[in-house]
Design brief:
Blueprint lengths: L4 E6 L2 E5 L8 H26 L1 H8 L5 H33 L1 H21 L3 H4 L1 H32 L5 H29 L2 H28 L5 H6 L9 H27 L1 H9 L3 H29 L1 H20 L6 H19 L2 H6 L4 H20 L2 H10 L3 H21 L6 E2 L16
Antiparallel strand pairs: 1-2, 2-3
Helix pairs in contact: 1-4, 1-6, 1-7, 1-8, 2-8, 3-4, 3-6, 3-16, 4-6, 4-8, 6-7, 6-16, 7-8, 7-12, 10-14, 10-16, 10-18, 11-12, 12-13, 12-14, 13-14, 13-18, 17-18
């Protein structure tokens, strides 16, 4: 590179300084579009299950059958979250060996095929409890692909991004996540508006999953034309140098610390806020979901903004600021919610704006902590574990504490998780603009300095 110097100021890596920004190539932009399109579809497919869960339950389960009811419980609350860390390890390791592009093509194919299979699978009336088994297996497969897709896409987008814009480019991941959820919600709203309950129960819900499968063909075409990241291609020719297992474990725990606060916040503000307003504050359902949709639109603006800011001020100040903002603001903001829709919009927009401070830059931040040859595995697994432990449990804990008139106690828990982000931010080196091919240790203390 021209006019480039390497310093030891970032995550045990060479932070790039004094470098004139290179022109972004058409291949990079094509690869970014392919990654974003896949992330949108991934979360579109994943969210459809929740949107159409009532119709899926009527098709695949018999409430009078205890075995089927048990399978339904496992499918809804456990299978997806259990499968995600496994998928992170399996597909992350595959991405570190066979390439990021290969895995992203593979996982989106799995998601699309499983959506189509879900749409055409026979129901309980035809094959009994085996229909429930089929649903659980399909959801398990989706969870495996979802765990791999998420972490590997974090790595891929960060590796193809220009170093000076890595935070901005990585914000596209959660931008796509939010947009995918919004599109699935919109499809559900339109389907329920255009079709009566009989049609929805019979065949309407299937069309949404067929749509997901068809869209998957377009994403598959885009991803096949994408480029492999230079970091992966270049490290294939390098000599194998052992990475201490202790460093991998410590880096993984650090990643979880940095992620758990915004993972928990996402499930509070993005997926559960409307349901909380309806059940706990008596808000009109249609008004609540509209207010929630508008608040998510605010998040679409804040994500790239915070990603861009992290490229200017650094990752450490951003994650520390997010932790403090969450501790100070989340509980008071939640008290704003009444039965008036505008209160939900204000509270959710504020909550998601704070969440976006960490989420917008997280794919870049986490990718800058690990060496290339273990990056996809480490990021995918650590992220999936954090989501499973702290994200998936958030709605249930909030509901339980609210039912026992201890809503404050839940936000003590959220504050504790947010404080871990602050601690992690104090421990980690600054990583913005880092040379991803030279990552050593992410810690401020005890890392080997580069000269």
């Amino acid at each position: 590179m021209n006019n480039m110097t390497i310093t030891g100021t970032g995550a045990g890596v060479g932070a790039i300084t004094g470098q004139s920004e290179r022109k972004v190539t058409a291949g990079q932009l094509r690869s970014l579009r392919a990654a974003v399109a896949g992330n949108i579809l991934e979360w579109f497919d994943w969210t459809l299950y929740a949107i159409f869960s009532t119709y899926i339950a009527a098709h695949f389960f018999d409430k009078s059958d205890s075995s089927s009811a048990l399978l339904a419980t496992l499918a809804v609350f456990a299978v997806g979250f259990i499968a995600r860390p496994v998928g992170g390890i399996v597909f992350g390791r595959l991405a570190d060996r066979a390439g990021r592009k290969f895995v992203l093509v593979f996982t989106i194919s799995i998601m699309s095929v499983s959506s189509l299979a879900l749409a055409i699978a026979p129901g309980y009336e035809k094959i009994g409890v085996w229909s429930s088994v089929i649903l659980v297996v399909l959801r398990l497969i989706q969870g495996l692909a979802h765990g791999g897709e998420s972490g590997v896409s974090y790595t891929y987008v960060s590796e193809i991004a220009p170093p000076q814009r890595r935070g901005l480019w990585s914000s596209s991941v959660f931008f796509a996540v939010t947009l995918g959820v919004m599109l699935a919600t919109a499809v559900g709203a339109i389907a329920n508006l255009m079709l009566d309950d009989s049609a929805m129960t019979s065949w309407g819900w299937r069309l949404a999953f067929v749509l997901g499968a068809v869209l998957g063909l377009g994403v598959l075409y885009l991803r096949r034309a994408a480029e492999e990241s230079n970091e992966f291609t270049e490290q294939e020719d390098e000599e194998e140098t052992p990475i201490p297992a202790s460093l991998v474990v410590k880096s993984g725990l650090l990643t979880i610390m940095l992620a758990c606060g915004h993972n928990c916040a996402y499930y509070i503000w993005a997926t559960f806020a409307a349901s909380f307003a309806i059940s706990a504050r008596g808000m009109d359902p249609q008004s609540a979901f509209l207010a929630s949709l508008l608040a998510q639109g605010v998040a679409l603006i804040m994500l790239p903004l915070w990603g861009h800011v992290s490229d200017r001020v650094g990752r450490r100040p951003m994650i520390i600021a997010m932790g403090f903002a969450a501790i100070v603001c989340y509980y008071p903001v939640s008290l704003l919610i009444t039965d008036e829709p505008w209160t939900l919009f204000i509270a959710q927009a504020a909550g998601m704006s704070i969440w976006a401070m960490g989420a917008g830059m997280y794919p870049a931040f986490s990718s800058e902590l690990f060496p290339t040859k273990i990056r996809a595995t480490s990021v995918a697994f650590a992220t999936s574990v954090s989501v499973a432990l702290f994200g998936g449990t958030a709605p249930y804990l909030m509901t339980w504490f609210n039912q026992h008139d201890m809503e404050w106690a839940f936000f003590v828990w959220v504050g504790l998780l947010s404080s871990l982000a602050i601690v992690g931010g104090l421990m980690v080196r600054e990583t913005k603009g880092a040379d991803l091919s030279a990552v050593q240790s992410p810690f401020r203390i005890g890392a080997r300095k580069e000269s």
